[in-house]
Predict the 3D structure of the following.
Amino acid sequence: MSNLILNGLANGILYGGGLALLAVGMNLIFGVLNVIHLAYGQCVMVALYAVYVFAVLLHLPLLVSCVIAVGISALLALLIHVAVVNPLLKAPLINQLLALAGVMIVLENIILAVFGSDYLGIQISFPVFAIGDVYIKISSLIPFGVGIATLALLWLFLNRTYTGLAIRAIVQDRDMAELMGVQTGRVYWVTFAIGGILAGVVAACFAPIYTVHPHFGAGFTLTAFVIVVLGGLGNLLGGSIAAFLIGVISQVTGVVFTSEIGEILVYAIFIIFILFRPQGLLGARVRT
Amino acid sequence: MKRGTRLLYPAVLCGLFLFLLIAPFRLPLYGTHIFILIFIWSAVATAWSYMARFGVVSLGHGAVLGIGAYTTALLFNYYGVSPLIGMLIGGVLSVIYFAGIGYFCFRFGVIGHYFAVTTLVQVMMVYLLIIYFRDFSGGSLGLTVNSLGTNPLFFQFHSKTHFYFIALAFLLLTLYVWKKIHQSRIRRAMTAIDNDEAAAASIGIPIVKYKTMVTAISAFFTAIGGVIYAQYMMTLHPDVLSSVDASLGIAFKAILGGMYTLWGPFVGATLIIGLEEYFRVVHGATLIGWSVAAYGIVIIVLVIFFPKGLHGTLKEVLEKKRNE
């Protein structure tokens, strides 16, 4: 039993790397545009299908298909921004949410119409190695490694470039940033594109692990949102910590009980947090 | 001109009433089936709009639908409790559950789109719980209600005609409740809260009380709608009754028609169910994805350009014309 928990712990930490990536994308979009990207998981789902199309149907090398999928995901994000989010930036927040729920339905059903509802996946098996009693799959090391690397790159981008500075300025105070001459319109679409790229990278990481089907995305969106709330809205560091926490919780409970209990627990934690501690784990003040 | 319209309105109403009365006897079975679906989902969408029209948008009504329907069906299947009683138990349970969540959300200031996302998360929880207790609830394979043929005491009818009138009566009831809320104190309080919550609180309107009340009414009628649907179909499935898609489906029907007007949810439900069935019958199952995607796009366009929905926008235009 303790052995199982140890394995769950290890896998949870590895899984958390992918989740951190997922949540950071949503967190950035929330922090900069104040929009809850309800169709974020569906973007990951579309990118996973893109990996499948290029790797399995068109027989391209996996790495190439992943790069193409990241590109497609970024384009999709830009499309969503231009067609749906941008016209609604000044609208009531609930309208944005409903329109993005519409995007969610559209993406799911287009995929359903094109690919059908079967589970599809790339048939690749990676070796497993053991450290003592803990078995670790190479395929779950990939999301961890790529996740950490991408987070580092993102950190560099946010702290070392002008656009990154603009993004951080807008997260802190949108009106003031605008007054200081930050071109918010440009930063908005750059942020959305980054979100799309992150969704694509997540998809590329998860492609060897998961088989994908049209309703795959909803769980991702909610998990990402749970992490964002847990870490504190707009707080990237808290989000990363929360991602590992959620990864461990869901994997360990998944091993000890069943995966459904793990998921239910994650959602229950979310509801408790949004009620009693909406500022998140680290307690950063949330602007209203 | 004015007199003409005054006469026209009752005439159309009478004609519609007669048509609805005769329809189930004249229409083919399939036609009756469509009408029943439209009535039930319109009623549920109307119940959803009780709270949504005041800015308390829930994206989790599927959970309420599922709790009502599953409670009733499980009580009947395992303990032989008549669905007529089970329906009330299910309704009350849904109210306790959903208004409970609502109470805590309103109490702790979870409003607007945070409330919407919270309801979306709880729907996933109910969905997963139904699947987790698969030995009892049938899980993702669904649950079949034990059939007794036609037995009014156990709310089972063989013929569609019965359900046609039950569903119609239920729809009229939900519309009546809409009217009642519209005429009551609740509407004035809720409108004030919707406009400016802090201002409403400062002049002494008990925000939490009114919001919870509206949520409870909405949850109760939604749950009853779920029970009628389950008793009509005789089978329950978590994907249909308590999934994220089901919840969004309810919301979208109301938004499409217009969630601020009495007839909006009905117009929306009629259009969506009509279109879905049309595509399913004429083009087969492969086009279902495309048709749903198309209505998703219509929803996005409506939310961006006509946030008041089809019926709401139409009504506004007509009223503007009349005033000129």
Remarks:
- The interface with chain A takes residues 55, 57, 59, 101, 104-105, 108, 110, 112-114, 116-118, 120-122, 124-125, 128-129, 131-132, 244-245, 248, 251-252, 255, 286-290, 292-293, 295-297, 299-300, 303-304, 307 of chain B (CB under 8 Å).
- The radius of gyration of chain B is 20 Å.
- The first helix of chain B runs from residue 2 to 26.
